[in-house]
């Protein structure tokens, strides 16, 4: 199998869209769009993110030992594109959760401290101990599937 076939196959798994953010003293806030995120454990509360070796934010997370996961809402496609480098010359304002930078309007904001890191292939997996969470129960998530942004469709009850 070639790289394109592998990427296409992985793109058939629909995911939410997140922005991973971190802050380094004297260097400001850094972030990137990612969909490689999952929960790991309920006790203790742990999540994992996967960051590519070429990503600028990789060394920033290693230095700060903290990160946030911002699960974007359906109306935040532009935010995703900014952090993916597809839109230039636009900035995003940040709020704070447990002293860490989070994106306002996200469906969920998760503040973490790095508890472990593992290099696997061309990525580093960061295990994050969750220190705080904020949830917006009203927002719908932004979805990514087969290389395109999507949104959830409301399911209508069946009537006879």
From TrEMBL:
Residue span, Flavin reductase like domain = 10-151
Classify the source by domain of life: Bacteria
Q: Which SMART domains match?
A: Flavin_Reduct
Q: Which Pfam families match?
A: Flavin_Reduct (PF01613)
Q: Which Gene3D superfamilies match?
A: Electron Transport, Fmn-binding Protein, Chain A (2.30.110.10)
If you read the UniProt record, what top EC class would you report for this enzyme, in one word?
oxidoreductase
Keyword terms, alphabetized: Oxidoreductase
Q: What is its EC number?
A: 1.-.-.-
Q: This protein is called what?
A: Flavin reductase family protein
InterPro entries to which the protein is assigned, alphabetical: Flavin_Rdtase-like_dom, NADH-dep_flavin_reductase, Split_barrel_FMN-bd
Q: What does the record give under GO molecular function?
A: oxidoreductase activity
